[in-house]
Design goal:
heterodimer, A: mainly beta, 6-stranded mixed beta sheet, 3-stranded antiparallel beta sheet, about 0% helix, B: about 120 residues, 4-stranded antiparallel beta sheet, 10 strands
Amino acid sequence: QSALTQPASVSGSPGQSITISCTGTSSDVGGYNYVSWYQQHPGKAPKLMIYEVSNRPSGVSNRFSGSKSGNTASLTISGLQAEDEADYYCRSCTSSNTVVFGGGTKLTVL
Amino acid sequence: EVQLVESGGGLVQPGGSLRLSCAASGFTFSDYWMNWVRQAPGKGLEWVANIKEDGSEKHYVDSLKGRFTISRDNAKNSLYLQVNSLRADDTAVYYCARGLRRNLYWGQGTLVTVSS
């Protein structure tokens, strides 16, 4: 049950695009299409942004997109806005119905 | 409207115990896996445990097995986490979250502080 690997921080200017990676193993990210991504602002509960690798819940901007290749999933945010500045976490189910989160990535909008 | 409301947190001495609760409303509680997720101050999210719809299957993060116990009462639409032998590094906000494959709904969290 090792945490998924995410970069500690990423940054971008308003209007730019950024991508956050999430690397696991064939027992979690690589084995199933149950990768989800969460946005968390300080002092708030996490918010689901992407589920099942690339699906957006109702109400989430289409500037957010997800993909997966092998054992690595990615979250891309296009047209960066100031309000996107937050922490982002990936999450995956595993073969034994346990769950693992990534270590989190702090996004700074310059 | 789906709501998850945690309670039961507070200040506890090292070695002590607490029972955290999560009251669910706005959906058919017995149709969903439920989870506990915690977040230490300034740290990332850590999945703690989950439980199947009927309570027949429970899973825990390896590092907490034996000290934490997840349970549910579908008649009361409630999820529980019994936490024993608490240590300083158990200090965290504890969230309940709905679902196995994704967590669309989260509570606001309850803070557990372990300190003498």
